[in-house]
Design goal:
By secondary structure, the protein is an alpha+beta fold. The protein is built from 8 helices and 12 strands. The longest helix has 15 residues.
Length: 246
């Protein structure tokens, strides 16, 4: 098994904004010393997120990080610490909390975690399957050694409420909106909001979602869910959950 650290690079269109776009992911294999930095190639999404940004500068900036991080003739013997490296990134470019996990030696963790955190940079055919994505989410959540419970609980009327994960006192439900009609998901959102309200004294409810648009129906769904639970995009939500269960 390899022990690896990774952290995701987020871009904020201004220093006080809470909205961000995930644009890169940095890996350090603590067992072998290998370092990798992957970043987006689809800059059309980046331009939509911040139409005032200098895209050519951002491309050079990301290429510069890759050059600094990955081993080359200039830094081959230099010691490396992710924590020290990301410490200076505090403005528009900021790294997420560092996560440490174990992976199999034959596991293509760089590609797989990149596809999860930079999901919408890849064509549908090249993304992780839903089962692969769930497996990595569980691996990430397991990094804290918090105890998983059976993800099915009884509601107020003894009905089954099935979450995707229950870890510690945090219950997690995943929502996928990609290529779905968000308006048709409004009744489902109301059902889950009702369940979250019923169970709020037993669990911290967290709804995680994938999202690649900003449609009015999707905003309605998120507003419904946010009334009764913590709601985050998948990548940001994993960081939130890790902090809650650590």
């Amino acid at each position: 098994m390899y022990q690896i650290e990774y952290t995701a690079l987020k871009y904020y269109n201004n220093v006080i904004s809470e909205e961000c776009l995930y644009i890169g992911i940095l890996f350090h294999n603590l067992t072998t010393g290998e370092r990798n930095f992957r970043y987006i190639s689809n800059f059309k999404r980046f331009q939509v997120f911040d139409d005032e940004a200098d895209v050519n500068f951002v491309k050079l900036y990301l290429a510069g990080i890759k050059q600094q991080v990955e081993k080359n003739i200039f830094n081959y013997n230099d010691p490396f610490s992710i924590a020290e490296f990301i410490r200076i990134y505090v403005n528009e470019f900021r790294f997420s909390d560092i996560t440490t996990i174990k992976v199999a030696e034959d596991e293509n963790y760089v590609d797989n975690l990149t596809k999860m955190y930079l999901k919408f940079d890849f064509n549908k055919s090249k993304r992780l399957s839903q089962s692969e994505e769930k497996r990595y989410i569980r691996k990430i959540l397991s990094s804290t050694n918090a105890e998983f419970s059976i993800p099915k609980v009884s509601g107020m009327y003894d009905e089954n409420v099935s979450f995707d994960y229950i870890i510690g006192n945090v219950a997690i439900k995943l929502f996928s909106f990609k290529e779905k009609n968000a308006a048709k998901l409004i009744p489902t959102a109301k059902q889950w909001a009702f369940s979250a309200e019923e169970l709020k004294d037993r669990y911290k409810i967290v709804f995680l979602y994938d999202n690649d648009d900003d449609s009015p129906p999707l905003k309605i769904v998120l507003q419904i869910l946010k009334k009764h639970a913590a709601v985050y995009p998948l990548q940001e939500g994993l960081n939130y959950v890790l902090r809650e269960i650590s």
